[in-house]
Amino acid sequence: MALHHLRPYLFSTAARPIKSIPTRPVEGQKTGTSGLRKKVKVFQQENYLANWIQALFNSLPPEDYVGGTLVLGGDGRYFNKNASQIITKIAAGNGVGKILVGRNGVLSTPAVSAVIRKRQANGGFIMSASHNPGGPDNDWGIKFNYSSGQPAPETITDQIYGNTLSISEIKIADIPDVDLSSLGVVSYGEFTVEVIDPVLDYLELMENVFDFQLIKGLLSRPDFRFVFDAMHAVTGAYADPIFVEKLGADPDCILNGIPLEDFGNGHPDPNLTYAKELVFTMFGSGAPDFGAASDGDGDRNMILGRRFFVTPSDSVAIIAANAQAAIPYFQSGPKGLARSMPTSGALDRVADKLNVPFFEVPTGWKFFGNLMDAGKLSICGEESFGTGSDHIREKDGIWAVLAWLSILAHRNKDKKVGERLVSVEDVAREHWATYGRNFFSRYDYEDCESESANNMMGHLRDVIAKNKPGEKYGDYTLQFADDFSYTDPVDGSAVSKQGLRFVFTDGSRIIFRLSGTGSAGATIRVYIEQFEPDASKHDLDAQIALKPLIDLALSISKLKDFTGRDKPTVIT
């Protein structure tokens, strides 16, 4: 990325001369639910990234960063190394005292949160476009996390956007590029860069959360097989040290374990569509007992048993129901449970049985952070393959895998070799027998024309405005329909227009949202849920059980009429 030709120094400290670069606003720098995401070529435009970073510093109180420590890392995708140098120099130019950066610019999103919390840093930058493809022609992203390790709230991201509209100068230190390949400390006057091992702090935290000896006992069994697909993304840097070196898993259990800047030309989204190799392995003959995958930046996960898929909504509910018995960190029981609004109600039923507080929040992990900081929330999840707890302030893919390994290890700890092991499917079916099954599916229509997508949402808002409780939709009776809004119970902040809901008297739900995680176009997400208490019906295929609701959703929305789409891009 080119920077404007430098003007004379504004001021200088020993070995840290600070320069001012004139700039002007550029369009399109409003952040979505998880930071700013665009195509790489957009970020490579003159001053595009530099403007946003400077606008961030202009939005923060000086006491939040001057002389302080910030963490920097990312998922290893293309442009991260160049961006690391730009961010480091602008941080130095704005008076930051120290940057902690992962070796080669690599830190998973959960690891950034962990490092911020352990090192008591003022905050941190995460360079990632999450589960979106990487490479010169694909996506890049940036977001900022606060001192608790949680994503910056909308009050700050809105200020950042406002400052991008009026920015006129970039403050940058005229220092050499930092060698990110070697661990160690380099100083430029009062400014210090420390290149850290990306795994150590995170691994130490995981050892404090889980019983590694219990898990190691499971993974060392000759009658238990495990496979983890890193999808050539950031968890490849963590899989071998954690699963193989610490927990004794077979080295061959790691699929696609070498992180690549373009994720091996893959789409690092751990779902049934994009994690094809893992799905083929787990649904094939001679399948392993347990399979899992994580995404680009390591904060999402997919859980599979032998020829059995665990929905993310069920996964967080099952983890919550078993956490006290299987995971030492939760030995006193969870303080509270929470899910994003589109996620199925399976977790609600666990909270009710455990008699702990429950919260329904908008999509976006930042909405869980205040609840955690206030001591109200322990375990939470999103249907979009995000699961986590208050050990950090981000969702955490490897944490979810370790949680499932803990549950399986606990259930099988007294089983002798040769005895039938309790399987992933057994755990899920026992859960359904206790709590009932929430059939759930999500239809994603990616890269829709934005105007058409917005017109469809406008049509649905008109439908909601005209409908009243008690109206019939075929065999379903409307309980209410609304545009979800949320008031934070901790600080009173409010957000609106978070998703259109049609909720029926039998507990069934249809939800429509436009996703904010893409870099171009619009993604329409349609969520369909139906609760089934009858165990004799739990074997139904979800798509068959939900077909009447799916047909109703497509009819209400007129999705095909507005978008021209005959079928979704992804079904989960």
From TrEMBL:
Keywords per UniProt: Carbohydrate metabolism, Chloroplast, Glucose metabolism, Isomerase, Magnesium, Metal-binding, Phosphoprotein, Plastid, Transit peptide
GO biological process: glucose metabolic process
Top-level EC class as recorded in UniProt: isomerase
PROSITE patterns, sorted: PGM_PMM
Record function comment: Catalyzes the reversible isomerization of alpha-D-glucose 1-phosphate to alpha-D-glucose 6-phosphate. The mechanism proceeds via the intermediate compound alpha-D-glucose 1,6-bisphosphate. This enzyme participates in both the breakdown and synthesis of glucose.
Matching NCBIfam families: PRK07564.1-1
Subunit structure: Monomer.
Protein name: phosphoglucomutase (alpha-D-glucose-1,6-bisphosphate-dependent)
